[in-house]
Amino acid sequence: MEQIVFQTALGYVALARGDCVLLALVFGHSTERSASRTLALCVKDLELPVDDLSASGYQTDDLVDRLREFARGEPTDFSDVAVETRGARVFSAV
Questions:
Q1: What φ, ψ does residue 51 adopt, rounded to 5°?
Q2: What is the DSSP string of 10-33?
Q3: Which end of the chain has the lower number of beta carbons within 10 A, N or C?
Q4: Residue 21 forms beta bridges with which residues?
Q5: How confident is the model at residue 89 (pLDDT cuts 50, 70, 90)?
Q6: Bigger pLDDT: 75 or 21?
Q7: What is the pLDDT of residues 21-68, one digit of tens each?
Q8: What values do phi and psi take at 18, rounded to 5?
Q9: Which residues on neighbouring strands pair with residue 18, listed in sequence order?
């Protein structure tokens, strides 16, 4: 599993990715530390098997660029981003 924290127009964003899938995303934090801590809590709650968390094959740089565009208010398509929903709470998975 890979975790990335970066700054956008909406504040700090943190994401966790596994093998070709987005595991968690948090945004709108005022500090890098806050985003990182919140992401760690989200990932911990997923309770996914370790085998599902390998970090190969997913284009993270492209996703970071698109999230920055989205934060600037630019039209952005995320339809190709696979999102892991196993273990997510109902509100999180919608």
A1: -60, -25
A2: TEEEEEEEETTEEEEEEEEESSHH
A3: C
A4: 18
A5: low
A6: 75
A7: 888 899 999 999 999 999 988 887 665 554 444 444 446 788 999 999
A8: -120, -155
A9: 21
Q: How far apart are CA 35 and CA 2, in angstroms?
A: 15
Other beta carbons within 10 Å of 54? 14
Q: Reduce the DSSP state of residue 52 to 3 states and report it.
A: helix
CA distance 32 to 89: 24
Least Cα distance to 23 among 7, 9, 4, 37 occurs for 4
Distances (CA, A) of 46 to 21, 40, 41, 50: 13, 10, 9, 11
Q: Are 16 and 43 in contact (CB under 8 A)?
A: yes
Amino acid letter, 49: P
Cα distance between residue 44 and residue 42, in whole Å: 5
